[in-house]
Amino acid sequence: MPKLSNCSTCEALSHGLSTLKGSTVQLECPETVTESRSLSWYIRSGSNSIIYTINSDINPSLQSDLHQRLNITGNHTIGEYHLSISDVRESDEGTYECSISGTINRYRVKLTVVVEPYSVNTDNVLPDDKLQGTEGLDLIITCRAVGGKPTPDVKLLISGSIAATGKQSLQHTLSTISSSYDLKPLPPLFLQKSVVTEDTVPLNVSCTSHDSRPAANFTWLIGQNNKDVTINSSESRTLNSSTETFTVTSMLIYRVDRAYNGHVTCEARNIISSNASSSALLNIKRK
């Protein structure tokens, strides 16, 4: 039986080969031929067969696109002729055979083309990539893979552990949502869209982020070069006892000059969020 060779994206199967769409697959014929015989590769199509190659020659009557994707590899001086198919398409799926002229030797392999899903979608996701739920009620999580062949496996991971699996789609119920789940902070808010101050006068500005669990920490950046001035800031935190989430306000006091004209940015983050940021225009006038 032909076997897979030098193809990192393919996996040898007991009944044939599978390879990803767009990859390159090589089928090896385990026999060698002498000058008095020839080795042919062809694909079965129903009760008919389409010849692809004879020794190192590719069938000139094949469609040009297919012809360009075929290649004959192996050491031809010792009679090796392997079939290589590049940029594999779904249309390449089928049963291939190599045969030796003047003999009954035929070696067959079934090629399966694997197509990755176009996307994986989760129902009821908000624009900020959050799932909406209410503490004390069940939360139903539904995931669906779009496309894919053969039918893709779907996994749902919660805090790094597999919570549910399925074929093409899955549904998982979180019974009675508790406040034990961490929540990323909402994007911080400035009180004003622009900040105006004078040269050498300390900049005094604050921003607030809501609904984080655990409490968010802030980073402050100013100017066109995003200078980190967080060390000059302070934070205050308020716990909402009904939701067990935090509202955090950060205040920055920093002496600036006109070299910092541009913008001031505050970023909020906690252990489950890299950052949620907001910026305000920074206008520093001559004193």
Distance between the termini: 85 Å
Coarse morphology: elongated
Output the helix-strand order.
EEEEEEEHEEEEEEEEEEEEEEEEEE
Tell me the CATH architecture of the largest domain: Sandwich
Structural class estimated from helices and strands: mainly beta
Give the name of the CATH superfamily of the largest domain: Immunoglobulins
Biggest β-sheet description:
7 strands, mixed
Instruction: Report the count of strand segments.
Output: 25
Number of helices: 1
Rg for CA atoms: 32 Å
CATH class of the largest domain: Mainly Beta
Query: Roughly what percent helix?
Result: under 10%
The averaged pLDDT comes out at: 85
Q: How many structural domains in the coordinates?
A: 3
Secondary structure: elements and pairs:
Elements: E1 3-4, E2 10-13, E3 16-20, E4 25-28, E5 39-45, E6 48-54, E7 57-58, H1 64-69, E8 70-73, E9 82-85, E10 94-100, E11 106-114, E12 119-122, E13 139-146, E14 153-158, E15 161-167, E16 169-174, E17 189-190, E18 194-198, E19 202-212, E20 217-222, E21 227-228, E22 233-240, E23 245-255, E24 262-270, E25 273-285
Parallel strand pairs: 3-11, 18-25
Antiparallel strand pairs: 1-4, 2-3, 4-9, 5-6, 5-10, 6-7, 8-9, 10-11, 12-13, 13-16, 14-15, 17-19, 19-23, 20-21, 20-24, 22-23, 24-25
Domain Ig-like: 2-112, 187-283
Membrane topology: Single-pass membrane protein
InterPro entries: CD80_C2-set, Ig-like_dom, Ig-like_dom_sf, Ig-like_fold, Ig_sub, Ig_sub2, Ig_V-set
